[in-house]
Specification:
Mean pLDDT: 88
CATH class of the largest domain: Alpha Beta
CATH topology of the largest domain: 2,3-Dihydroxybiphenyl 1,2-Dioxygenase, domain 1
Structural class: alpha/beta
Number of helices: 3
CATH superfamily of the largest domain: 2,3-Dihydroxybiphenyl 1,2-Dioxygenase, domain 1
Order of helices and strands: HEHEEEEHEEE
Distance between the termini: 56 Å
CATH architecture of the largest domain: Roll
Low-confidence stretches: none
Number of strands: 8
Length: 157
């Protein structure tokens, strides 16, 4: 005997093979950093983030470190900066397996210009704004955090 719940489960299974569930956007970015307070200060200064007033233990290994959560009230994007007790202190290197970089969207090429000016005011080293047209038109500005993690600001128009 089948129930209405069995039919719902069968319908859910058949729908999953037709199309993947939607992704609504990026919720948070969580790099491991060598000096968490220096990184908190840098990310707050560069991105205007607000610190959540608590530390978050690492789920499942609470004694190994913690995260500090920073949020952007305009975009709702969160940055979770992680401290690991056994971090050897080496700088990030995108040539190793793991994260290569993160690219954050901005509204326009004009916004990239504003970001370039902002980073210059803060003394943050950056690339020139690069215009690309293949495989589609975009502009990108590249810079790095205190642990050498590459961050990109990306505009498509």
């Amino acid at each position: 005997m089948t129930t209405s719940e069995d039919h719902v489960l069968a319908d859910e299974k058949s729908n999953t093979s037709k199309r993947n569930p939607a992704i609504l956007g990026v919720h948070h970015f969580s790099p491991t950093v060598t000096d968490i307070e220096a990184s908190v200060e840098w990310y707050q200064r560069v991105f205007g983030l607000e610190r959540v007033p608590t530390e978050f233990p690492h789920y499942g290994s609470e004694g190994s470190g913690y995260a500090v959560l920073l949020t952007d009230p305009r975009s709702n994007l969160a940055f979770g900066l992680h401290h690991h007790a056994d971090n050897s202190g080496e700088s990030f290197d995108e040539r190793r397996t793991g994260l290569d970089h993160i690219a954050l969207s901005v509204a326009s090429r004009e916004e990239l210009n504003a970001w370039a000016d902002w980073l210059d005011q803060l003394g943050v080293a950056r690339s020139a704004i690069t215009e690309m047209s293949d495989p589609f038109h975009y502009s990108v500005l590249v810079f790095r955090d205190p642990d050498n993690i590459q961050l990109e600001l990306f505009a498509t128009e």
